[in-house]
Specification:
Blueprint: H1 4-17, E1 22-28, H2 39-46, E2 53-57, E3 60-65, E4 68-73, E5 79-83, E6 93-100, E7 108-113, E8 120-125, H3 133-136, H4 148-156, H5 163-167, H6 178-188, H7 201-220, E9 261-265, E10 268-272
Antiparallel strand pairs: 1-6, 2-3, 3-4, 4-8, 5-7, 6-7, 9-10
Helix pairs in contact: 1-7, 4-7, 6-7
The protein binds a DNA duplex through loops.
DNA sequence: AGAACCACCTGGCAGC
DNA sequence: TGCTGCCAGGTGGTTC
């Protein structure tokens, strides 16, 4: 399930709990997820090394050691959970990373759990992990980009793709998944089926503001919970109660009481209010 | 070149 | 109760 707020929440949790810890144990229960797991390289990067930095780039969690970086993507159903035991506690536990952390008596074990196995483990030997093929062609970070509205305007010129599909394109802006795409467009009052090319500069600015606001709100709430997402302690997020359109087809718009509509776009469900988000 | 489509996988749920 | 079919948060590669 994770979109940017969920990954950000997990990353912050990891920073608070295991940053500075040393990996002493690495167990793989399978050799592939979405693709092959680079087991030997991950061992070389992590084993007996301290974790000196943990950060998020797009929806990847980057765990940096002096030898390189591990990239963790949670896919649709992935979770990272901390337990005091190395024994898998949940079905579909694929990797367990054992760590000794300063100021803590017993070791901590980070469990990577992912029922659908759309997640991904990759790595980069050496310090230049930003150049990893999975990261180097990514678009801007929505939370820190100073001119997201300009970026959206520039990227939408000459494109006939629907604006909803465009803001979910990680080459344009990262971290906006299916839920927050619908929510951002509702907040900006823009119809999700509009051609990117038809957006005026002020609409792009409105959309940029909406994306930032909604992602920040979701992070404050600890991420959205539909079914699978849990933070490191296994707790759900609390944002789902404040969703305005996502998953509410047929229910009444909270602003104008018109029925929320479900639209299929590029094989994904889009939810919008036909009155608040007019087609132009 | 850009847009649409498909594949990867399991689990939950609606409908029969 | 139990089976079948459909749907789901992502995204890289293929096809059109």
């Amino acid at each position: 399930m994770p979109e940017l707020p969920e990954v950000e929440t997990v990353t912050r949790g990891l920073n608070a709990s295991i940053l500075g810890g040393t990996v002493f144990d690495l167990n793989f229960f399978r050799d592939s997820l979405r693709d092959q797991i680079p087991i030997a390289d991950l061992r070389a990067i992590l084993l007996d090394q301290p974790i000196i930095q943990i950060l998020r780039r797009a929806k990847y969690i980057v765990m940096v050691s002096p030898k390189g970086a591990a990239l963790i993507h949670l896919g649709m159903t992935g979770n990272l959970l901390l337990f005091p035991s190395s024994t898998p506690q949940l079905p579909h536990t694929h990797v367990v990373i054992g760590m000794k952390c300063k100021g803590r008596k017993g070791p901590l074990y980070l469990h990577f759990v992912d029922p659908r196995r759309f997640g991904r483990l990759a790595c980069h030997l050496g310090t230049e992990w930003q150049g990893h093929p999975l990261l180097r062609s990514l678009g801007v970070e929505p939370l820190t980009c100073k001119n997201l509205g300009d970026v959206l305007f520039r990227c939408s010129r000459g494109r006939s793709v629907a604006v909803k599909t465009m803001i979910m394109d990680a080459k344009v802006v990262v971290g906006v998944g299916n839920i927050y795409a619908s929510e951002s467009l509702f907040s900006a009052g823009i119809h999700p089926g509009r051609d990117g090319n038809s957006l005026a500069p002020d609409e792009c600015q409105r959309l940029a503001t909406a994306i930032k606001t909604i992602l920040r709100k979701a992070i404050r709430a600890g991420g959205t919970t539909l079914q699978d997402y849990r933070n490191l302690e296994g707790k759900s997020g609390y944002f789902s109660i404040s969703l305005n359109v996502y998953g509410r087809a047929g229910e009444l718009c909270r602003q104008c009481a018109t029925a929320v509509v479900l639209l299929r776009q590029s094989g994904r469900s889009t939810f919008y209010c036909p009155l608040c988000q007019k087609e132009k």
